[in-house]
Amino acid sequence: MKKSWIANGVTAANALFGGLSIMCSINGEFYLAATFILLATVADALDGRVARALKTAGPFGVELDSLCDNISFGIAAGALIYSYQLQSLGTYGLIPCALLGAFCSFRLARFNVMVSDVHGYFQGLPCPTVGVLISSYILSGVKIWDWLALICVLGLGILMVSEVHYPDNKGASADQLHLPALLGCLLFVIICIFLQPSTWAAAICVAYVIFGMINTWLNRRKKKMRRARKMRKGMDL
């Protein structure tokens, strides 16, 4: 058996779990559907490591990984949150959940073509984060207002295709990580756990989402201030 089949098999397990999640969502088995998405996340985290360990990494695995990610973190996650909560809103609830798969496709395609240009951060919210956030929210047993959930799902989709920078946790970040943003998000997680311990995983995901937005804004603001200072110095000369 070729070694590449092992790594590709791990990647395919991602899609398998995503498909099982969709079926469970259709059957109303929401906790099981959420668990399958989390298992897909584990497979997604392992496939690249397995491929590198076996020295079988290649373009086929990259494309397969993107297709599997879209199934699990775009389509399956959208189907889950729609079946679990947003179905009651009719077409209004259907549209953002369906768009989640489209946004995920765009995010993955951009990642593949820009992988050699972007280093030290993710451009746009990573697709697995969306899947983990939706799954952990459902597993927490906490249910927010339906319309707020709709806005959050739409926001997650937009963030995937945005130019917001998120830490990739692969070493030194290309962006400065601002301590106030880190401390604020840490405080948010602590408060959520104190008020409702079951939300710990969802709280961490939400904190990551918020941190990326705040940190990106602070970095862009800092760059603008530097440009303004340089322009003033140039005018003084």
Automatic annotation (TrEMBL):
Recorded topology in the membrane: Multi-pass membrane protein
Keywords assigned: Lipid biosynthesis, Lipid metabolism, Membrane, Phospholipid biosynthesis, Phospholipid metabolism, Transferase, Transmembrane, Transmembrane helix
Classification lineage: Bacteria, Bacillati, Bacillota, Negativicutes, Veillonellales
GO CC terms, sorted: endomembrane system; membrane
Family membership noted in the UniProt record: Belongs to the CDP-alcohol phosphatidyltransferase class-I family.
Pfam families assigned: CDP-OH_P_transf
Chemical reaction(s) catalysed: a CDP-1,2-diacyl-sn-glycerol + L-serine = a 1,2-diacyl-sn-glycero-3-phospho-L-serine + CMP + H(+)
Gene Ontology biological process terms, A to Z: phospholipid biosynthetic process
Protein name: CDP-diacylglycerol--serine O-phosphatidyltransferase
Gene symbol of the encoding locus: pssA
Molecular functions (GO terms): CDP-diacylglycerol-serine O-phosphatidyltransferase activity
